[in-house]
Write a sequence for this structure.
């Protein structure tokens, strides 16, 4: 699949439950290559986005294995593929122990889910799915059993290490949260408010500890050093530069999430699109 160098990442709770089509059309018109729909969506949630657009790839970011029946997922994918050939990407994730009571043996659970997708009457092709991978073993699995990896809440250092782990031929499409603003104090506060949830999830905090940060960086809502590394802030040009750092570190595609904006972020996506074209 051709995702392009840059895409956008958002969720219905942010843009509005009934405004996905509008947002996807805006992203396509601005030249972004992919639209990542967060909030653990099921595949039918992609339909109105695909109906509203003509070319852009639309992806789940990320379908949760604990809340999904792989046989139904395969059927849903086949229906979308028949109607919108080549435009749907199934992003699959294992979730977090803090959010899922059944959470156990994540690698084994993911392998079983992929096995069942492969065994379906109409399997989801390996090159039409990717995994929300952070750690080395899940990255390995994403390279072996899918198009590649879609890491979330990561630094440039993680992107570099993930590329080394995946090798040169697999997709690496990190999400990059960002805050557009000229007030440095207010922008960092917005970034820290966004990061609070993720710093409380062990998968993310452990990943940061494995990539150059200490417990003191995670405590107290996150050190300035950590917040700035994971959620860059500043002008559209500064955010574009941060996205290009991920590209230089090995990302094929960077999915930009504008933080602290309610509704469809027309101004923010337009400014980013312009800066990324320069």
């Amino acid at each position: 699949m051709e995702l392009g160098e840059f895409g956008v990442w958002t969720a219905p709770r942010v843009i509005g439950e009934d405004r996905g089509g509008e947002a996807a059309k805006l992203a396509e018109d601005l030249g972004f290559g992919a639209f990542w729909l967060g909030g653990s969506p099921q595949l039918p949630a992609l339909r109105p986005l695909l109906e509203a657009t003509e070319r852009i790839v639309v992806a789940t970011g990320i379908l949760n294995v604990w809340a999904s029946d792989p046989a139904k997922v395969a059927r849903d994918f086949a229906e979308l593929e028949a109607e919108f050939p080549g435009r749907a990407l199934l992003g699959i994730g294992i979730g977090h122990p803090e959010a899922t009571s059944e959470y156990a043996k994540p690698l084994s659970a993911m392998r079983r889910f992929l096995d069942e997708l492969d065994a379906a009457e109409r399997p989801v092709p390996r090159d039409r799915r990717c995994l929300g991978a952070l750690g080395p073993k899940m990255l390995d699995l994403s390279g072996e059993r899918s198009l590649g990896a879609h890491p979330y809440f990561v630094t440039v250092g993680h992107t570099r290490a993930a590329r080394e782990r995946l090798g040169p031929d697999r997709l690496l499409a990190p999400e990059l949260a960002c805050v557009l603003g000229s007030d440095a104090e207010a922008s960092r506060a917005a970034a820290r408010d966004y990061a609070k949830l993720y710093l409380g999830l062990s998968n993310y905090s452990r990943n940061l500890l494995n990539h150059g940060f200490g417990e003191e960086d995670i405590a107290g809502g996150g050190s300035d050093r950590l917040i700035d590394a994971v959620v860059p802030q500043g002008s559209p040009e500064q955010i574009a530069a941060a996205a290009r750092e991920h590209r230089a570190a090995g990302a094929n595609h960077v999915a930009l999430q504008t933080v602290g904006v309610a509704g469809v972020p027309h101004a923010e996506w337009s400014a980013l699109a312009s800066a990324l074209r320069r």
In short: The radius of gyration is 18 Å. The chain has one domain: 6-178+235-277. The CA atoms of residues 153 and 230 lie 6 Å apart. The mean pLDDT is 97.
